[in-house]
Design brief:
The chain has 16 helices and 13 strands. The chain has helices at residues 10-23, 46-51, 68-86, 98-109, 129-139, 149-157, 173-181, 204-207, 210-223, 235-243, 259-268, 277-285, 300-304, 315-324, 343-360, 369-376, and strands spanning 2-7, 30-35, 59-60, 90-94, 113-117, 143-146, 166-169, 196-200, 228-232, 252-254, 271-274, 290-292, 308-310. The chain starts with a strand and ends in a 7-residue tail after the last helix.
Length: 383
């Protein structure tokens, strides 16, 4: 099987790295990696790929820093050229970025089978571009690898049982990465108190809304009077804070850190405060409570088990959550919400078996899954 993997944002490389390491165990699967350049900085050099033990991309498109339409359109044009040349048997995309959507649309228009990792996630907030990317990518995918039971149910609710596709609960590849990289974690070069909160703020719904941003930082400043709050801050957000004259005097603001430094901060913090989707889960992987500075989350199972508290941008709710925060309930780990580090193995076994069967005869994807159950014992949801 020739597999064309489309990536663009740094977190996607971390996720795909776990799958690529598993793919390397199978000689029959050849992976071609395309880096769209959606998120690119000097840190994503050869050193980054070597340090993270991630295969270097075969193609770099250099498309970033544009409007949604310009970015997605230019990515489609270049990905299409690569697809014509490489002639892949399948295209695989991750998550919900513009790179994800561009790869999905190319696969659909060229009639190439599409696999979507992290399928079925829904925030039910269609003002978020990521939500639109998720919905559209899911709809044109033939294999949907869902990280959770909730994601599987979302697709069922949307009628995917009637579509020519298969929905598989694979588990979450982010947990695979968290387990793998924990042993390589590095302490950042800064003074860290014995007890500290790790905080990140980057979503446009917060950074581009003056009322929300001021309320969040007022709460963070008050919180930081009692405990160190470490906040890796993107230069764009830092500039917004300066322009709005928002007080950050009590906060430990640092430059964005690499993944291994971030892993150390998560593993050693008291708890997490964030508006990031991924960091909500990573907090859970590292047995940390999370206060989420959003009005909704894709990870509703974390809210249900009380590992995650939704507070929006309400100062009083943020401070109340801080004052009542409890230690992580390790009984939650027994719920096996995200696959316990086996997601990449399941994904690649599905690809491998699909490759074997399709090499023998031309059959529909729908026909292979009874064999999957018998041969591999995978947790597959028949839709």
């Amino acid at each position: 099987m020739k597999l064309l993997t489309i990536l663009g944002a740094r977190p996607q490389f971390i996720k795909a790295g776990s799958v690529s390491r598993e793919i390397s165990k199978f000689d029959s699967i050849k992976e071609i990696i395309v880096h769209t350049g959606q998120h690119y900085d000097a840190n994503m050099s050869d050193i980054f790929f070597d340090e993270m033990q991630i295969p270097k991309p075969n193609y770099f498109l250099g498309i970033g820093g544009k409007t949604h339409g310009a970015m997605t359109g230019q990515m489609m044009e270049k990905i299409e050229e690569i697809a014509f040349s490489a002639k892949p048997d399948m295209i695989m995309v991750y998550g919900d970025t513009n790179s994800t959507l561009a790869g999905a649309l190319v696969a659909s228009k060229l009639h190439i089978k599409l696999a979507h990792v992290e399928a079925g996630l829904r925030s039910f907030n269609t003002k978020m571009p990521e939500e639109i990317n998720r919905i559209l990518t899911d709809r044109v995918s033939q294999i949907l690898f869902c990280p959770t039971d909730t994601a599987v149910q979302n697709l069922k609710n949307e009628g995917f049982e009637k579509f020519d596709c298969k929905v598989i609960k694979s588990g979450d590849v982010m947990q695979d990465g968290a387990i793998f990289y924990k042993k390589f974690a590095k302490k950042p070069n800064l003074n860290v108190d014995k007890k500290f909160i790790l905080c990140t703020i980057h979503r446009a719904e917060n950074t581009d809304n003056e009322v929300r941003l001021k309320a969040i930082f007022e709460a963070l400043n008050d919180t930081a009077k009692n405990i160190q709050v470490i906040l890796p801050l993107h230069p764009r957000t830092k500039k917004i804070l300066q322009n709005l004259n928002i007080n950050t005097i009590n906060l430990t603001i640092i430059e964005p850190v690499g993944y291994l430094e971030m892993t150390w901060l998560i593993d050693n913090c008291f708890f997490v405060m964030t508006d990031s989707g991924g960091l909500q889960k990573e907090a859970f992987f590292f047995k940390k409570q999370c206060i989420t500075l959003r009005d909704e989350t894709e990870w509703v199972e974390l809210v249900k088990c009380k590992a995650n508290i939704l507070v929006g941008a309400n100062k009083d709710k943020i401070l109340a959550a801080f004052s009542t925060i409890k230690t992580f309930d390790e009984n939650n780990l027994e719920l096996n919400l995200y696959g316990n580090g086996k997601a990449s193995e399941i994904i690649v076994k599905v690809l491998y078996l699909l490759d074997i069967i399709m090499a023998v005869r031309m059959i529909s994807i729908l026909d292979i899954f009874s064999l999957l159950k018998n041969w591999w014992g995978l947790a597959i949801k028949q839709q």
